[in-house]
Amino acid sequence: MLKSLLYIFGFLIAGELVSWLFQLPVAGNILGMLFIFIALKLKLISLEDVKPASDKLIKYLVIFFIPYGVGLMVHFNMIAEFWLPITLAVIFSSILTLYVTAIILEKSGK
User: Fold this and answer.
1) What does the alpha-carbon distance between residue 63 and residue 43 come to, in Å, rounded to a whole number?
2) Which of 19, 47, 49, 78 is found 20 to 30 A from 2 (Cα to Cα)?
3) Residues 22, 13, 45, 65: what is their CA dihedral angle, to the nearest 10 degrees?
4) Given pLDDT bands bounded at 50, 70 and 90, which one contains residue 109?
């Protein structure tokens, strides 16, 4: 379990470091996920190396959404003021995501 946590947090730190060093407009945690994905695909690390910690993190994933819910309540007045553009953006981006995902799945033959 400790080894898998070290892998996950190591890639998170690497992503944050790259984002900070190169002043990238991409969040470090996103880069860290990309790095760990590439390492898994290139077989630099095995799935069994990260599976114990990732299974536990996924089990308690709902806890990680609590800060976002609190943030929504803190900015409720702004959300109430701009509800129409926010709603349209959410709907449009969701439809676009579903469309792109369908195209990728169709092209990959799955």
Assistant:
1) 31
2) 19
3) -110
4) confident
